Amino acid sequence: MDEKKEHHSHGHQNKDIVEIPLSSLKKSFKNPWFIVSIILALVVIGMISYPLFSGVGKSTIETNGLDFFNNELTQGGATLNSVVVESGLYRMNINYNGQVLPVYFTKDGKFVAQGNELVSLTASADTPSTNTAQKKPATQDVPKSDKPKVELFVMSYCPFGTQAEKGILPVFSALGNKIDGNIRFVHYTMHGEKEDTENFRQICIREEQGTKFNAYLQCTLNSTSTSAPADPAACMTKLGIDSAKVASCITGKAADYYAVDSQLSKQYGVQGSPTLVINGVEVSSARSPAALLATICSAFNNAPAECSQQLSSSNPSAGFGFNAGTDSAAANCGV
Q: Chain centroid to CA 257: how far?
């Protein structure tokens, strides 16, 4: 199946298990594999950097892999679907949030990779975390400006994209016109036709009824479900958004609007949802409103008084809804 969908195709059909082709190993390390669904992006670079041994039993993979998933990546709730051998790797299919996610392990049972970092599953008990990857130093060389340009690239159904949106909307509200802030869309989609449609709907509201865009996001994010937004039609009615104009845009100008976001996403080298770009440079930040405020305010030549506001220091929960949570602030939906 296709690794990703780079443009909208409303005939897309969802799969229960999202599979990532092994041909991706031929790509450069700048484009590692990522799980294209609810939980953390995991890349199989271990089989390139480390030899494959005779392998451990499936029961060990089941235990270690599920523990890693529940303890390091989530707050629990994942269960085992199956474990299969695929092209020299173990593929562990995990049930999580109503989907079946594939996670690949080297056959020695010791390594997966998180983003572009090798992660050990066999750290000693004295190690604070089983995530013992050798991390490259983070560099945050963000150009400063009088009015920082802030762009958050997301997919509308990526749970980590919505997590970042919930973190950044209070910041956009706090800083107002002191920044040039925009929610934009990455150059591919991974969550089916529903995401294609919602991306276009949001782009149309942003471009043609922009004063109501952030309020629309806030409304749809405030869902009783973690996997689906609040009813878009009800939110548009509540906010006085012209739904006929939106419908016309979706079949008309939306593709052109999306092409602009897509080009910027490629230009910046965006590889996941969410990706934060400030003054043209990709930066890392925790996803709490307070952390995002501090990150964005570091890009001012002279930070305004608004930067001293006290915002929440808790990471929003991943997915839709405003439930309290401390979900990972590093996970994404990526390529």
A: 21
